[in-house]
């Protein structure tokens, strides 16, 4: 392939996280040609932007491509952004407030940049390259992406476009109160879905139960580093406490899936995030909970179909591919 | 105004109900030039279509306009429709299944027709002509319409367009279960919002309480014709039972408003339908319930603003104006 053939056909996708930055070169067919991961320097916005720029330059070098071949750079930011101005408005993990990401990177690198919220980016990535495909292998007109990981958040693609809402907060099911007076959430409310069913919530519930004297295989684990994945492993070994905690969270998440289906009437709901990379007891519990809603609600039965709920197809590449999707043809948002 | 100036600048909007058909001529500025109301003949689809055609012809005569001045006819149907084919798929009150509304009326009247579900039509009407306006007097990019009457249903306008979803069922909050094992809903599920908070549900709850021996001013009313409006009047006279029933329904509706706001992040939420034509104890209860969610949820506080929740501006004309909006410039859906 000559440089000429390749001119401006490639994209760089950057997944900016609180601890690490993953950057990749993506071709027109959605293939990731290089993956580079570097630590996020959070010692001030300037340093963070410099580490992002370093990741971009390194992944281009790893893919063996020149600046002239790159059409643009897309970035997924863990927080609130203004996609028009390209300003990172607020990102707790990056300690960002009103950081002019787009301007800084375009000045530094001389390539067009686009930024979006990381969950939105993941939704766009699954829609364009991943699980958001209908039976006839076309992109779903209406798709809901539900991220299950250290947080819980949803984003909808409607009419093929990301639905942001007035403040970019559309799909904030994670901070919707499901249990008034439930456990305190990081957002300040009580009983949000995220406080009931995100990974850290499961681990916290297990730690508290063990401290309260419940017997569990999880007692053998270091309590400080307990994760939802430890609960999944314990369930495989017959641990009752883990089973109960995961089942409780799955019930809430199944209600969220039901609500999102009733609200958006989508073709596809994609479960993404670290807790949905493969089938596990949480996913099984969600499927079981959804089956109960199918049983109960005739309207839901019309909306639902056997292939509606899917796990992420892009898994760990969703951040890179989704960020690239910000600049892909027909996916400008 | 000469006929020439007026050529094809007018629309006919038809609100097809189970008991009556309202038809009106609407001008380019959204003024209703004539209103005709006739009974719906539900003795077979052919008869119903004939009564619709009669209503259209009569309202044109009432407005003094000729066929040549009419650009098209929009119809709101109380049920499921296919807007592309113009087929009324299912309408319980009309006893319709797969009725070729568009083809029949276009053949009979020689004017282009468009059909949509009646709640969708109301949402489009409020968006184009009514309460769906932002502060700067432009149309809301994202607007949610929540209909409160004999049924409860929501429809969202996203990016200025009606969001239908895969089956035209997007926004089915009315048939979303809020109270598992709650009262039986007409849809077959238990504890749907509609079974908890629609007009007939309020009247039913009052009747049941009175039969069970509760004391209420409503005992003076004919129990068979009791409506939510009787409960509102009784509350004004200090009736405790009515107050409790309406407050309970308002709590569920406030949660629905909260859910819709968190899901769509809209600029505007319009309450329409017969229970939202003016301030009343149900609306007051919804506002009070929303105030509690504002108190509880920091994310909701970002999404919410003082002028978010509005009552219908079009009231009884919403069906005519909304149906006309199906064919208005820039509002094709």
UniProtKB/TrEMBL annotation, chains A, B:
<dbReference type="InterPro" id="IPR043129">
    <property type="entry name" value="ATPase_NBD"/>
</dbReference>
<dbReference type="InterPro" id="IPR000600">
    <property type="entry name" value="ROK"/>
</dbReference>
<dbReference type="Pfam" id="PF00480">
    <property type="entry name" value="ROK"/>
</dbReference>
<comment type="similarity">
    <text>Belongs to the ROK (NagC/XylR) family.</text>
</comment>
<protein>
    <submittedName>
        <fullName>Glucokinase</fullName>
    </submittedName>
</protein>
């Amino acid at each position: 392939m000559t440089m000429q053939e390749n001119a401006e056909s490639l994209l760089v996708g950057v997944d900016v996280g609180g601890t690490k930055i993953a950057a990749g070169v993506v071709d027109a067919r959605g293939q990731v040609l290089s993956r580079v991961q570097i630590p996020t320097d959070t010692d001030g916005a300037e340093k963070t932007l410099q580490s992002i720029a370093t990741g971009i330059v390194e992944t281009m070098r790893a893919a063996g491509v020149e600046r002239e071949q790159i059409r643009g750079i897309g970035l997924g930011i863990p927080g609130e952004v203004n996609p028009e101005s390209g300003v990172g408005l607020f990102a707790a993990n990056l300690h960002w407030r009103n950081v002019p990401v787009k301007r800084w990177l375009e000045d530094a690198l001389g390539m067009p940049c686009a930024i979006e919220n990381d969950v939105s980016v993941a939704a766009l990535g699954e829609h364009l390259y991943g699980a958001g495909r209908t039976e006839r292998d076309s992109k779903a007109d209406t798709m809901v992406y539900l991220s299950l990981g250290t947080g819980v958040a949803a984003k909808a693609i409607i009419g093929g476009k990301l639905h942001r809402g007035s403040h970019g907060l559309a799909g904030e099911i994670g901070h919707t109160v499901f249990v008034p007076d439930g456990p305190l959430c990081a957002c300040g409310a009580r009983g949000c879905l995220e406080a009931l069913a995100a990974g850290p919530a499961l681990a916290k519930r297990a730690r508290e139960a063990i401290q309260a004297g419940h017997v569990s295989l999880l007692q053998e684990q270091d309590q400080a580093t307990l994760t939802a994945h430890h609960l999944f492993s314990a369930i495989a070994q017959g641990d009752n406490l883990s089973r109960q905690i995961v089942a409780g969270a799955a019930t809430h998440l199944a209600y969220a899936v039901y609500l999102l289906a009733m609200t958006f009437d989508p073709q596809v709901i994609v479960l993404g995030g670290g807790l949905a990379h493969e089938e596990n007891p949480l996913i099984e519990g969600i499927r079981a909970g959804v089956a109960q809603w199918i049983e109960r609600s005739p309207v839901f039965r019309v909306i639902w179909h056997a292939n509606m709920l899917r796990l992420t197809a892009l898994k760990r590449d969703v951040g890179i591919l989704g960020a690239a999707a910000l600049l892909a043809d027909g996916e400008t948002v």
